[in-house]
Amino acid sequence: MKVVHIEFKDQNQMDKAKQIRVKVFVQEQNVPFEEDWDEEFSENYLILNDEEQAIGTMRWRDLGEKIKLERVAVLEEYRNNGYGEKLVREVIKDIKSKTNKPITLHSQLKAIPLYERIGFKQYGELFYEADIPHYAMQLED
User: What is the pTM of this model?
Assistant: First the structure.
């Protein structure tokens, strides 16, 4: 498995990320397309399986005082095999090579154990995004 950074103008790779996000968020979780695909500038990544197929994606945005991880998605048939954790860990390494800003995210409840294994700690109150319960989390160094 390999994590690749999507170059800004690589429409083919961005299309792969979009297909994964549509399957996971729009089709599986009923998130409105416009809410998921918001056109915000971000750094995007894919994780490829051993056959070089894109099976997961995520992005991060620099919000000024912090970095926010977003849109972490792995295709259903590849979940619970370490792909999501590998993807997030590799992206964090890349972020840390560029900045020392705090790294945060909004986690769906079922993903909290994944992020806790990586070193994130939950804070604040439960809230909803796209009618899905979330908690804010921050990476502890």
Answer: 0.93
Report CA 82 to chain centroid distance, whole Å: 14
pLDDT class of 7 with cuts at 50, 70, 90: confident
Q: What is the DSSP string of 61-128?
A: EE-SSSEEEEEEEE-GGGTTSSHHHHHHHHHHHHHHTT----EEEEEEGGGHHHHHHHTEEEEEEEEE
CA distance 74 to 70: 13
The residues facing 48 across adjacent strands are 2, 54
Burial level of 58, CB count in 10 A (0-12/13-18/19+)?
A: buried
Per the rule left: phi > 0, alpha: psi between -120 and 50, beta: everything else, 131 is: left
Between CA 121 and CA 136 the distance in angstroms is: 8
Judge whether 37 and 3 are in contact, CB under 8 Å.
Answer: no
Give me the domains of the chain, ranges plus CATH numbers. 2-100 (3.40.630.30)
Reported as a single tens digit per residue, the pLDDT across 22-73 is: 999 999 999 988 888 887 789 999 999 999 999 999 999 999 999 999 999 9
